[in-house]
Specification:
The chain has helices at residues 6-16, 25-30, 36-40, 58-61, 63-76, 90-97, 110-117, 120-148, 181-198, 211-228, 253-260, 276-289, 315-327, 342-352; strands at residues 19-20, 80-82, 153-158, 202-208, 234-238, 267-271, 293-297, 333-334. 46% of the residues lie in helices and 10% in strands. It has one domain (6-352): Homocysteine-binding-like domain (TIM Barrel), CATH 3.20.20. Helix 5 (63-76) runs parallel beside helix 14, helix 9 (181-198) crosses helix 10 and helix 13 runs parallel beside helix 14.
């Protein structure tokens, strides 16, 4: 059966209006007041490590919560919601299910992670997390899309991992890496296959701190596409610091675009790390050099433990700031990262509604 051409479909939509992404899964999960027992469910009741901070596990143990969150974001105006799979690789899940050798005088190294890559439990868990998360998001995209008459999309979220290919954790051995490129590549390929199996429309490599990790994810996407003879739109998004550099690999915004332009992404953008006010100069730089659509989903300001969401900005602040981005012609996709609830996304959708999307430069 011929595959639908989501890239052409989305490019047309993005040329007509600014599309809206969703908000923060973790922030919204916390509003449900779940405890450790809730997160574990009966299936993981005997786990030796705490799982409450393992938000991806909730797609299995509390699917009604994750489904409700997707539903609320779509109802708030999101055209695209991300799957609950930010840490749904065997490498990331090993933090919750495998004893840390450093607690007994050892260290994490490629030998340790080779066992992780080959671990049947972690592979099966990662597969299930990605397939079920994709199916959950797909269900609500289709339901809300059918109810409203406006098509909604599912983006398979591919997060940054808890290990770095760029830097050594050992100041005495700068050449040491805890994990190899091939191991990261294999973990990401497993995740990409499962996200596609679950029915996502888009793949999103997001919150890039380490450009080499993201390179492995991009290679994984391309290899799975080649093996399956399937193509889906790709969105790539980096988290940058105050100086506009990726946190670990210290790659500036223009270099970030140049490093990933060959993947021909549907959109490239910035997310997390900063609020919209501090992100603006870096978004302007990216908008000025990227020859594709530009996305932006910043945090709701800076962290503030006294604020209801843990971040400073309320929905009306995000509405104004994201509307300013749109008015300046910087955006094709807009949403929110940490601290952004469905109420924030509804405000962002209101702020960008009716405003012209950024014009994508024509490459000769």
């Amino acid at each position: 059966m011929p595959q639908p051409d989501f890239t052409t479909e989305l490019q047309k939509a993005l040329s007509e209006r600014i599309l809206v992404l969703d908000g923060a899964m973790g922030t919204t999960i916390r509003t449900y007041g779940l405890n450790e027992t809730d997160a574990r469910g009966s299936r993981f009741a005997d786990s030796s490590k705490d799982l409450l901070n393992n938000g991806d596990i909730l797609s299995i143990t509390r699917p009604e919560v994750i489904g409700d969150i997707h539903k609320r974001f779509y109802e708030a105006g999101s055209d695209i919601c991300e799957t609950n799979t930010f840490s749904a690789t065997g490498i990331a899940q090993s933090e919750f299910f495998v004893e840390d050798p450093r607690e007994h005088g050892g260290r994490k190294d490629p030998e340790f992670f080779q066992k992780i890559i080959e671990n049947p439990f972690l592979n099966e868990l990662a597969w299930e997390m990605n397939v079920e998360s994709s199916r959950l998001c797909r269900k609500w995209a289709d339901n809300i899309g059918s109810d409203t008459g406006r098509k909604r999309y599912v983006a398979g979220a591919i997060g940054p991992l808890t290990v770095s290919l760029t830097n050594s954790p050992d100041p005495e051995d700068p050449g040491f890496r805890v994990v190899t490129f091939d191991q990261v590549l294999e973990a990401y390929k497993h995740q990409v296959r499962a996200l596609i199996e679950g029915g996502c429309d888009i793949l999103m490599i997001e919150t890039i701190f380490d450009s080499l990790n993201a390179k492995a994810a991009a290679v994984a996407v391309q290899e799975v596409f080649d093996e399956s003879q399937l193509r889906l739109p790709l969105i790539i998004s980096a988290a940058v610091g105050l100086g506009g550099e990726t946190m670990i690999s210290a790659q500036k915004v223009e270099a970030f675009w140049n490093a990933f332009a060959h993947t021909r992404p549907l959109a490239i953008g910035l997310n997390c790390s900063l609020g919209p006010d501090l992100m603006r100069p870096h978004l302007e730089e990216l908008s000025g050099c990227a020859c594709t659509c530009v996305s932006c989903y910043p945090n709701a300001g800076l962290p503030n433990p006294l604020a209801p969401t843990g971040f400073d900005l309320e929905p009306h602040h995000m509405e104004k700031l994201m509307a300013d981005f749109a008015e300046a012609g910087l955006l094709n996709l807009a949403g929110g990262c940490c601290g952004n609830t469905p109420e924030h996304v509804a405000a962002i959708a209101k702020g960008v509604a009716g405003r012209k999307p950024r014009e994508v430069p024509v490459v000769g």
